[in-house]
Amino acid sequence: MKFSKQVVISTPLEGMTTHIVSTGVKDVVTFAGSFLGGAQFGPTSNQKVSVLMAAMLDKGTQSKNKHEISNLLEDVGAEISFSSTRHHVQFTGSCLKKDLEIVIKLLGEQLQSPSLPNDELVILKNRMIGVLEQSKEDTKKQALIGFLSSLYPEKHPNHRITTKQAIEQTKKVSKKELKSFYKKYYGLGQFNFVAAGDVNSGQINDLLENRFNKWEQKKTTINDLLLGGHPSKANEKRINITDKMSLDMYIGQAVGIDQDHEDYYALMMGIYILGGNFSARLMQTVRDEQGLTYGIGSSMAGTSFGCDGYWNTWGTFSPNLFEKGKNATMDQIIKWYNSGVDSNELEAKKTTITGSYQVGMDTTGGVVALLLSNAERGRGVAYLDQYPEKITRLSLDQVNRAIKQYIDPKKLTLVSAGSFKQ
Fold it and tell me: Most CB contacts within 10 A, which of 112, 136, 239, 315?
């Protein structure tokens, strides 16, 4: 797909941009959208206000309760769901082309006139608290929370609060807080709508204009740019969780760059070669050759919207193999840092990454996700056409230089969670 030639971009309303692409799929429309109103914008004392507000959008409107909403969608075989990220309120959906007007009308109603019923808020909070209580036993989640809270200060977008804090914040959220947050942030301004499939841009723009023309404009902006992580230093922390048959470990550090940095793709590639998939070094050595882990991998994350991101290596081990597994993992990281990657690895992973990118565009859901993510970051659609070339142009020198510049094996944070062998 050539995005720059096939995607129709329009502004049906001030503060609303649409990205519409017609594909070979017949009679079906897949859509997604977002606007600024995620956790960054909630009260600093309670990160769960934004999460609960988004989760309440399908619990009723001023004219329909949740059962009526569910029945309407079921009758036409459609779906609409809502979620909240660090920065955005997001929605996704699908329907038959003939039912698009019904579904867009419902979407507009859910976004513009949520009823926020108290009984549903109580149920939702209890459900979320139950999930959080269960996550106390999740060794991977607890290790990641400990890892990110060690790397970043409290107000940083990549910082994570403890599960106990998350439970306390969830309990405190009130309908009054939700209404206040909704009034302040929900509206047009940086609203993106993306659709793919059997679509017509004129029809969709007309429907959106008709349903959202009275929604207020909000002057919301992202302001994470000047926040930095803690200085890197050698640090190890253990989180004891009793009666677990395995434990999880995160090793890594903040790297101080975001997705728009000139070295981002070179560093991302180097980390991918270390542990990005089943044929990467860590899986081939620590798991397949040495048999020390159930699973292991490396990735780079937290780099969106100007944030200084981090790289990490994760692994899961049985308690009696943890020390050997940890040491074997560190051996591979040090070898990777000292010797770099070779040309065969680089060419193989270029093929893997660009191939996966193309496969992701084989479905309307994949196309919609790419378009929305790209729009949220303020990039033109030409960027999506240029991405594979950015990967294939990477040189061996660029990748190895980035590893040396942004990785320091002597200053890694290591956090593990589980039942440790005494």
Answer: 315
Model-level pTM greater than 0.85? yes
- Contact (CB, 8 A) for 326 and 286: no
Residue 308 amino acid letter: D
Half-sphere exposure of 369 (CA within 13 A, CB side): 8
Per-residue DSSP letter, 257: -
Separation of alpha carbons 139 and 129, rounded Å: 18
Distance between CA atoms of 37 and 215, rounded to whole angstroms? 15
Count of CB atoms within 10 A of residue 183's CB?
Answer: 11
3-class SS at 383?
helix
In degrees, rounded to 5, the angle at the alpha carbon of residue 286 between the alpha carbons of residues 353 and 251 is 75
Kindly report the length of the chain. Answer: 422
Per the CB < 8 A criterion, the answer to whether 139 and 248 are in contact is yes
